[in-house]
Each structure stands twice: as C-alpha cells, then as structure tokens.
Amino acid sequence: MFRTIKLKLPYDRTLIETAKQFRGATQIVLDYGFENKVFNKNKLNKGTYKTVRETIPALPSALVQTARDMASEALKRTNLEKKIKRKSLTIRYDNRTFKFHPDSHTISLTTVQGRLVYPVAHSPLIDKYRGQYTNAQLVIDEKKDRIFIMVQVNLPDKEVIKKQDVNVIGIDRGVKNITVLSDNTFFNSKPQNPHFDGKI
Questions:
Q1: Which of 3, 70, 168, 185 sits between 20 and 30 A of 175, alpha carbons compared?
Q2: Residue 138: phi, psi to the nearest 5?
Q3: 70, 113, 74: which is closest to 92 by C-alpha?
C-alpha cells in the first residue's frame, strides 16, 4: 500500500537552480522526441544524452536520466500529436537521488551542488506512515516562495489475523427454496414458523 507525505522544505536557491536545469534537460528531450516522433526511452537517451550533458554540465547524470524518463512519459501520453512546453519547476527523485530520514526530519537530495541535506517541517504523517520511501517529487512555487516535496512511502501490508475454529456459512436466497446454505441445508418457501405465517 502506497501513501504520499507532503513536506515543506526551506526556500533554497540551489534547489531552484537544480529544478531549472532539470526543466531544461526535460525540454531538450521533449523537443527531440516530438521532432523525431519517438518516445522510446532508449532511443531518446541515444539521441539526447550527450547533448544534455554538454548543454547542462552541472546537472548530475542520474537527474538527466530521470528527466529523460519524464519526457518519455509525457510524449507517450500525447501520442506525439502536439509539442510540449514544460513550464513547472519540479524534479522527480528516485532511490538513487534522495533519501528521507524520518527520525531526524531531514532529507538528502541530489542537486547541481552535489548531495545536500535539508530539514523538513514536521508533519504528523511522518510518524503515521513509516515504510520504504521509494521516490519523491519536488515542487517549487516561485510566486509564493515555497518548496514542497511529496515523498511516496510503501507501507508494509497489515497482518491478517486468522481466527481458529470459526465456521462460516454462505447463504443463497431464492424463490423455490427461500434459503440454501453452503452446507446444503435447504429451506423452502413454506412458512417455517407458524407465528410468521402469512407475514413473510
């Protein structure tokens, strides 16, 4: 079972710059995919990886790959029918590029300045949802000077406690036989209790 924890981060210039470069990398792949009518990740990687690395050298390789994946998904959604202009400042993080530390309320993120650790504002969801933190989405709102990160957590399945020695009987209601039990006991439509005769 997956849940998402929304956490507030400091309004940090390094994160903003990383998001801008990530957006730029995504746009290069989007443009290439649209012009060449391709959304296959391997083909996009072959056609754009070198260009992105040369154009945006400060963006870490792992984020370049994630930008490619996001572009591939967007191109596939539109079926290559329209050109996509990326405007939002977001970054997708995976288990290579982020690590959440719930006990210390910190998160480690890959940026254009290397791996940096940021404090996160307290949320009751941090304690409520403990599990495997699989990926995250950084969202920047420049108009309101706010940065949030949505951390996805895979929660362990709840253990089902089986009650011993419990007999369960299924019931099928019908017309000719008003009730048939799963143990093959039949009750026909004739009144079973004279007290209810004519009242059923």
A1: 168
A2: -90, 135
A3: 70
Structure tokens at 19: 């998001």
Report the half-sphere exposure of 46 (CA within 13 A, side-chain side): 7
Q: Is the per-residue pLDDT at 162 higher than 70?
A: no
Please state the domain extents for the chain: 2-154
Q: Which strand (E) or helix (H) includes residue 187? A: strand 186-187
Identify residue 158 by its one-letter amino acid code.
K
Q: Quick one: pLDDT at residue 184?
A: 64
d(CA 5, CA 185): 52
> What pTM was computed for the model?
0.77
3-state DSSP assignment of residue 8: strand
| pLDDT tens, position by position, 38-50 | 999 999 999 999 9
Of 15, 125, 1, nearest in space to 63 by CA: 15
